[in-house]
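Quick illustration, no need to memorize.
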Amino acid sequence: MTYGGWRRGDPPASRRFAEVGPLELELGGHLPQVQVAFETFGSPVQRDGRVVNAVLVEHALTGDAHVHGPAGPGQATSGWWDALVGPGRALDTDRWFVVSSNVLGGCQGTTGPSSEGPDGQPLGSRWPATTIRDQVEVERRLADLLGISCWAAVVGGSMGGMRALEWAVGWPERVGAALVLATGAAVTADQIGTQNAQIAAVTLDPAWHGGGYAAAGDFPVRGLSLARRLAHLTYRSEAELEERFGHSRQPGQGDLPAVQSYLDHQADKLVQRFDAGSYVALTGAMNTHDVGRGRGGVGPALNGVRVPLVVAGIDTDRLYPLRLQAEIAAQVPTCPELDVVASRFGHDGFLLESDAVAPLLRRTLDLSGAVG
């Protein structure tokens, strides 16, 4: 059995690749060369030699560059924000030039643990620790290569929201406006604990081989499956799980609880399309998230934001509770208020509540002052 969509088929025709050079990492590591996979939708509009309608859409932990469009050869899933991105949608690709890249450390075409090292073998255990700021630095270089000196807007939720906020704090001159959705300004102890449990689930699998599973011809299926089960419980709300499953059993599967069957299904889907090394690397990067690091703390970093910000949270989110978005909204001078999205789905509401997220996207684009 072949695991991981990054190993199967040819890259989608819409996926492009850029070399952004060597990278010195925030925590002291080094990557001799970084490739970025990205997709674009719509056409750039130039005024006075500048692209004025570019929007960067940031994916979450297990997302990729495919934000819009159907599944196809080499692309296991349809666009992860397809209801919001496309012609006539909130992020109208007839007006806006949408760019979405696979994050540093990912497994859908951007340099990550499954990429080959100088010796032709997967980097595996040699992959260095990376941070959200490293991810944004790679995106900044991609913007340079695309001739984008300033994004009309940077938008994202969860790990994507971390990068959107980091853009607003670290590169304000290059962002017209930002949508920061279902995330926080710094990782919490609860998140570190939950996410380290997921990392341990993968790395304690004997098939992990210290991160060198590819060279050993193995794959930590059980560990990655368990990590996904743990994570998915934090992505959905207790009320939704109770309403959908309660104490019910899965028909045709003996005495298996229906909620267990549901989690098994989610785990199986991820194992088929995602690299275990990327899961560990990106989860580790989220554990370093802190916009205040080296900037005098979270408060001063947020107080200094001058980019128009729309900040929103999900009312049932138990992974990134509303208090975290309230902290951002209260301390960023350019954010007039916190927007609350009502959802039964918990954290995943940022992906599923399209009707509620659409107005937030439109407002962000309006605040950018750009004309798509």
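The chain has a mean pLDDT of 94.
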